[in-house]
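Please, structure for the following, as tokens.
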Amino acid sequence: MTSPVVQVAIAVIINQDNEALISLRPGASHQGGLWEFPGGKLEINESVEDALKRELLEELGICLLESQPLQTIQHEYKDRTVQLNIYIVSSFDGEPKGVEGQVIQWKPIDQLNTLDFPLANRSVIHALQLPDKYMITGLFSDQEDFLLRLENSLRSGIKLVQMRCKNIAQSFFMQLSSQAKILCEKYDATLLLNSSPEVFQQMQAHGLHLSSHMLHSVDIRPVGLDKLLSVSCHTAADIRQAEKINADIILLSPVKETTSHPGVKGIGWLAFADLISDIQIPVYALGGMKESDIPGAIESGAQGVAAISSFWKENVKV
């Protein structure tokens, strides 16, 4: 017999220093010893909003003033299925304290480590940490040109980079990726390598990106949870496969017609929003995207936009 889904209200409380309030689960409890965002189970006939207010008062001694829905996540553990109704808390009254004796702390959002939290919290942390711009590297003439373009892009504020270098020797790709990683870390940016899992294992980077073809060539997640996994999707079937292998990021395209694929009509924002309406993985809109498209993408449910030409900066020495 299938157990009922446990409904949980979760509060992501963020202060002016861009820190999130987290608490340590008691060792004897389910998922004990891991950090979590405050919250708890809904009582019978209780709304999510009422549960959120009650839990914050009972756990932290604060009065909820303003909150906005962030996402809803359903996650199956071995012994239970939980649905997390996650809200961003933007305003509250009082000073948070561990009313129930739990350890609490304010943690910078960029320092939250998914391995320290229950698996169900993984996509929440990614949604909080990932930027609204995802750059894919474009054309370059030689090694110097590539590195100068990359550094100019990073200097302009890019924090998430997919290194996509088609039709070059594997040895050159590995050499470039090593230098790209050093540059990305200099600017606190994340580097994803567009390659096969086998090639990726030979290199050092923060994550792997799989093409839509490569996505369907794997049955399980090909990298550890300490690495990011980004995938390209074009259809609902692609998205289901991304969910099956527990991808962390989806690039969904084409939203608009692109110069690289003239005549291929984009799916448009309405179809884009419909395709990602029940996805728990952060999604970036790809295909004809510019920085000005970010508000529309977010309004459609995306994390932001991905692009080559709009973000891949020219080789200009400064």
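The longest strand covers residues 63-76. The two ends are 66 Å apart (CA to CA).
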